[in-house]
Amino acid sequence: MEIKTIANELNSLAYHGRGIIIGKSADGKKAITAYFIMGRSENSRNRIFVEDGEGIRTQAFDESKMVDPHLIIYAPVRVLGNKTIVTNGDQTDTLYKLMDKQMTFEQALRTREFEDDCPNFTPRISGIIRLENGDMNYAMSILKSAEGDGSSCQRYTFAYTNPLAGKAKFIHTYKCDGNPLPSYEGEPKTLELPDCDIDALTDLIWKNLNQDNKVSLFVRYIDLQSGKYESRIVNKNEA
Predict the structure, then answer these.
(1) How far, in Å, are 94, 98, 168, 196 from residue 104 at the CA level?
(2) How far apart are CA 166 and CA 24, in angstroms?
(3) pTM value surpassing 0.90
(4) CATH topology of domain 3-238
(5) Which tens digits make up the pLDDT trace of 34-74?
(6) HEC profile of the chain
(7) Cis check: omega of the bond before 188, within 30 degrees of 0
(8) Domain-wise residue ranges, the chain
(9) Do 78 and 55 touch, CB atoms closer than 8 A?
(10) 235 Cβ neighbours under 8 A, 6+ residues apart
């Protein structure tokens, strides 16, 4: 599979929609995840990320301009023990609740489908990082309509055991811009993770997202030995 740089991949599209990156740092000592949102409508662009416990949530930047919170306001990141959940919707809460009841990542997502935003039927993308014995494994999922037909849901899960240092996987909601928006296709893409600190990676991702469409970015580094983490949030509406 082709390995792309973050800059080249993010610049390849003006509109990825929402995206999840998960991988292992170049020194093999940290789990890394990033989640970003982009928007075309005023309602979608009127958002920021804010801290919420060990995770984050979205909220309106200007409450007076919020038209419809449905599919817009949710918690993208939550932590459950040694697991960090990252998604593009309220399936974060579904995963948190059902995995706490001993369901697997895949079993929990079988209770959900793509978003009900006809005609786009935006895919639900999800990721989970599990820390164990000083190392990590992770999985990604996409729930998408069958060729844009809202009567059928296609479910794909990609699991990564003993992931390679300096590499990450990247999945996003849309194949490209369009009307309706075409769903992402294929396996998660492979990205090169540069050997850099969290601030440099945050800056690299943010500056290479399309200036007009980017809204917010979250990045987290998790120490594989201790489980301690550091996070960064960038919001266009606060920049």
Answers:
(1) 11, 8, 22, 33
(2) 6
(3) yes
(4) Glutamine Phosphoribosylpyrophosphate, subunit 1, domain 1 (3.60.20)
(5) 999 999 999 999 999 999 999 999 999 999 999 889 899 99
(6) CCEEEHHHHHHCCCCCCEEEEEEECCCCCEEEEEEEEECCCHHHHCEEEEEECCEEEEEECCHHHCCCCCCCCCCCEEEECCEEEEECCCHHHHHHHHHCCCCCHHHHHCCCCCCCCCCCCCCEEEEEEEEECCEEEEEEEEEEEECCEEEEEEEEEEEEECCCECEEEEEECECCCCCCCCECCCCCEEEECCCCCHHHHHHHHHHHCCCCCEEEEEEEEEECCCCCEEEEEEEHHHC
(7) no
(8) 3-238
(9) yes
(10) 48, 49, 61, 215, 216
Rounded distance between C-alpha atoms, residue 43 and residue 233, angstroms = 20
Name the residue with tokens 């662009």.
Answer: 45
* pLDDT, tens only, 116-154: 999 999 999 999 999 999 999 999 999 999 999 999 999
Strands 3-5 and 189-192: parallel
What size, in residues, is the chain?
239
Residue with tokens 């007076």: 64
Exposure string over 106-118, b if 16+ CB within 10 A, otherwise e: eebbeebbbbeee
